[in-house]
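Dissemination and training. As part of the outreach component of the grant, students in the summer workshop were shown how a complex can be specified as a set of sequence lines and then modelled as a single object. The example used during the hands-on session is reproduced here so that future cohorts can follow it. Participants entered these lines:
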Amino acid sequence: MMGVALFRRRDVIAGLLLIVVAAVVVTMAAYYPAGGRHTVGPAVFPMWAAGIVFASGAVITTLGVMGEHILPEWGDLRPAAFIAAAFAVFSLLIDVFGLVPASLAGGFIAGLAISEQTWIGRGLTTVGLTVLASVFFVELLGLPMRLVIWPN
Amino acid sequence: MAELIDHLGLGFSVALSLQNLLYCFIGVLLGTLIGVLPGIGPAATIAMLLPVTYKLDPTGSLIMLAGIYYGAQYGGSVSAILLKIPGESSSVMTTIDGHALAARGRAGEALAIAAIGSFIAGTISTAILAGAAPPFSRLAQAFAPADYGALMLFGLVFAAMLSSGSFIKALAMVALGVLLGLVGTDVITGAQRFTFGIPELADGIGFVPIGMGLFGIAEIGLALSSRIKQEHVGEVKRIMLPWQTLKQSMGAILRGTGVGSVLGVLPGGGAVLSSFAAYFVEKRLARDPSRFGNGAIEGVAAPEAANNAGAQTSFIPLLTLGIPTNAVMALMVGAMMIKGITPGPQVMSGQVPLVWGMIASMWIGNLMLLVINLPLVQIWAKLVDVPPRYLYPAVVVICCIGAYSVDNAAFDVLLVGFFGLLGFVLSRLGFEAMPLVLGFVLGPMMEENMRRALLLSRGELSVFVERPISLVFVIATGLVIAGGLYAVMRKRSQLPS
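and obtained this result:
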């Protein structure tokens, strides 16, 4: 079949991804007890679920190879990457430096997801957000979070 | 009947307390506020606002969440009518005629009929919910573990069948959700599964990271990456609804309520399926079907009534059987579990004030929607214009803090980001998040019930076909799978070679 290269087709990628997930699950579940004649061990349900994931992956891959050549519409990947990074950075900073530094860093990185924003605009939005979040969550709702943790 | 009236009386006495009225009001207001933002639906709204309810008592928390749900649903209709961007899939049908009406300068009428239709449907379906919940609950008490296991299996497969995309992909998502639900310590043997040696995963993956990530964060990523073009219709000066229009819409509202009330109970049903079915029923019944798509007021009234009725009656299986039939109900289960409540027949009989307080608050919530939204519609109309550069960073920071605040666990925040990214990738590959979340919630319950049934039957698989209730669900599951596979094969055979 001509047209879209095999490994760029949406359903081929989707199906292969499922097959990989099923393979990882089966490999891990093989080490869990399967149970005996009268008991069902912790390996059984993951194996069944992995079987469904594998079978679905195989069908989707086959349909992707033989059927319509659909390309995944990824769009602009930058926003999703920056938003995920914002969560990662917030999670790294919150226990070490406190809410204010974590919100400043997380908010700024999330702001990078929006290309229309200027650097000054991003900075001001982040500072404003951090102030509002600190007042609302810590001062008003009384959530047990330290605003700033000073290094010893 | 006397018992029903007693229960409703108790429910209203709980819901009408000043504190719970305030929670209901805040819920409806916040739900509309967030739900009106383009691309953010009720599931995403509830996921984002879950942390706001942590500090409340269980009754107050559930009342607020139900208010958020209805508010978000109406908010979705506002962006559907004014911007032609359905906030969620149940508003897709409203977009068609609602925006056409708005483009002809009748936005006020469309918004008013959406609110009034939702209120009428909400009132009728709350009565249906109140009447149907007790008998359903008594039926549920006859369920053995095998029946529950078979029912959950049927629910998952049926939800996959009714999802809007491919059946095979939805089935894969259900299984993937089940696998994610199995992460952590096995409740029967104490074995650790799929924890990768990470201590934070020993108690399993929390519901908040999954719900917030797959719905809230993934939707923001998708909205920013696709840069949806907004088609604004200009200023909405005032809401007015001529008597003639209301009269013309009344039949559609009542039919929509009927369709929505029935379909809302089905697994995979709820607001989405209801609104689609109601729209097509109206189009079929219309003397001049060509009006539909060009600004027929019934095209707004019917789906809006149906999605609200469906939203309401989807609480029936949740409250009586403990089975969430759609993503929003799965989020409600998550919220209940955070409060230490496991939904099911025991809750119906053991937590009477909570359940009936919530049911009564549904009607009050619908009334508040009407009272708040008609005067505030100009504000909502302005809110849909808030630039994303301010909005989305704020949502991200709020979600970070919200996810962290559940257990003061930084790892949960990391998981939100991971599931956000996963939701984005899955969506781009043509998968839906809804079956995954249902699998995540129902999977561990299904495993527990099935393993318990097998323990009781000393490993005999025949336990699932010996009892009439489980036999019915096993046969129904088989039929649904056969139907789904037939549809896949038929589609395949119709493709050009």
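The first strand of chain B starts at residue 184 and ends at 185. Students were then asked to discuss how this feature might be tested experimentally.
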